[in-house]
Amino acid sequence: MTALGVVFRPQLPPERLRDVACAADAAGLEELWLWEDCFLESGIAAMAAGLAWTQRLRVGVGLLPVPFRNAALTSMEAATLHRLFPGRAKLAVGHGVQDWMAQVGARVESPMTLLTEHLSAMRALLRGERVTTQGRYVRLDGVALDWPPQAGAAVYVGATGPRTLRLAGKAADGTILTSGRTPGEVRRARELVEEGRAEAGRTDPHEVVAYFNAATGPGAAARIEAELESSGDAGKSEAGVAGDAQAVAEAVRRIADAGADTVILQPTADEPDIEGFVRFVAEEVRPLIA
């Protein structure tokens, strides 16, 4: 069955997160996803708070830009969250937006190399291994976590281009697809992920999480149109949905049929009632998908 969630956009102030997370938990929503866009909100701090305020909600961060972080520290943070909230934390890493990385002096010559090295080290550390590596960017000398996760700790990769999608399939446990994709583009992304998995000989599960623009209520169509235009996706009518629960559920099914295991509905930046949107997804859209 397709899992369903909502994005808490960091354009909202951090103090709004508690009410939204609690509304999601109370309504039975499966997942709430956070961003760590520069220079808005911390993904790790927000995730920890969201998990602590709720009982069953899974909380994801998609994504943590690896140029900001040391691989050992990222792994420590991930392991702590997995042990505190077993089965409820979902973390994705990525190479980040290069202009933002340049702003903070963290831009590297080869973002793909950095992501590959960071991902390899992080997955090994979370498996409880002792890691020594002298890569181009990631250098660890006999590092092992004292408190690795007690169960599996999947590491996702946020991917857009073909090279990163193949890398996600080859070396990650799951893939995050940003919003603005049509069902056809989701299908092609899944194919690229599977190419990477085949190259690596992987047959283990690999979750594809797709963000998808959605709006309901008064002015929904105009808000989706403006959202797509602002993100450079003007004219891609299948990259978002505006309407009632039936219309949104049908759009979710199209994205799932294209290859997404989990669909995370992304409200518009000017959504007037984010708690109401969360309840709409959980109470009205979810039953139509099940």
TrEMBL record:
Keywords for the protein's UniProt record, in alphabetical order: Oxidoreductase
Pfam families given in the database record: Bac_luciferase
Domain Luciferase-like: 13-222
Species of origin: Spongiactinospora gelatinilytica
CDD domains with a match to the protein in the record: Tetrahydromethanopterin_reductase (cd01097)
The protein's name in its UniProt record: LLM class flavin-dependent oxidoreductase
InterPro entries named in the record: F420-G6PD/mer, Luciferase-like_dom, Luciferase-like_sf
Molecular functions per Gene Ontology: oxidoreductase activity, acting on paired donors, with incorporation or reduction of molecular oxygen
Keyword Heme assigned: no
